[in-house]
Amino acid sequence: MADEPENRKRALRAELRERRRIRTSTERERASAAITQHLVQLASDLDVHFIAAYLSTPDEPGTREFLRWAAGRGIRILLPVSRADGLLDWAPYDGEDEDQDILGMPTPTSELLGPIAINGVDLILVPAATVSRTGMRMGWGRGYFDKTLGSMEGCPPVYALIYDDELVDEVPTERHDMPVDGVVTPSGIVSFAVT
């Protein structure tokens, strides 16, 4: 049945949203602190100078402490801004005010750049609902990051930020789904041999 992966994804996303929603604030804070340490390690190991990341929502593993650390070291940071046409614009991280884009996602209020602004980054950090141990990422269903990653020539390493229990053996996939090079979880960094 053609809709089977889509239906499986929908059910899995609902389950994962609920699991994230019921995590305690203590669990979230511990997870975010550990992920921040691992992101610092990843950025240092890869010697990054320019990254694309995102502002996490309250239920997601936190990104803000890492972004403050990176900015404090002079690493240039771009953050996504969702567009109505399904593409992402980018805006520099300045650590200042936040707004919401058309999907209600947190975004910076700095200068808006076009979709190609991401070209030249050394590392891309993406949100995910879950990731398989082979590197297949399942996002939240709108396809923004799949479109971005699929359109890049010479894509740099891409790492998804997830909780430990969201790294699974298998995820439902469709033709447009893009793999990631690794994940950062509270337990550590896992890199995949993406083909």
Automatic annotation (TrEMBL):
- Keywords for this entry? ATP-binding, Ligase, Magnesium, Metal-binding, Nucleotide-binding
Name the reaction it catalyses. Answer: (6S)-5-formyl-5,6,7,8-tetrahydrofolate + ATP = (6R)-5,10-methenyltetrahydrofolate + ADP + phosphate
Give the matching Gene3D superfamilies. NagB/RpiA/CoA transferase-like (3.40.50.10420)
Per the UniProt record, which EC number(s) apply here?
Answer: 6.3.3.2
One biological process GO term for this chain? folic acid-containing compound biosynthetic process
Q: Name one Pfam family in it.
A: 5-FTHF_cyc-lig
Cofactor(s) needed:
Mg(2+)
Residue spans making up a coiled coil are none
Which residues are involved in binding substrate? 55, 60
EC class of this enzyme? ligase
Which terms in the Gene Ontology molecular function aspect does this entry carry?
A: 5-formyltetrahydrofolate cyclo-ligase activity; ATP binding; metal ion binding
Residue sites binding ATP per the record: 9-13
Q: Which InterPro entries match?
A: FTHF_cligase, FTHF_cligase-like_sf, NagB/RpiA_transferase-like
Instruction: Tell me which NCBIfam families the record gives.
Output: MTHFS_bact (TIGR02727)
Q: Which family does it belong to?
A: Belongs to the 5-formyltetrahydrofolate cyclo-ligase family.
Q: List, alphabetically, the PANTHER family matched.
A: 5-FORMYLTETRAHYDROFOLATE CYCLO-LIGASE (PTHR23407:SF1), ATPASE INHIBITOR/5-FORMYLTETRAHYDROFOLATE CYCLO-LIGASE (PTHR23407)
Instruction: Supply the name of the protein.
Output: 5-formyltetrahydrofolate cyclo-ligase
What is the organism of origin for this protein? Answer: Protaetiibacter larvae
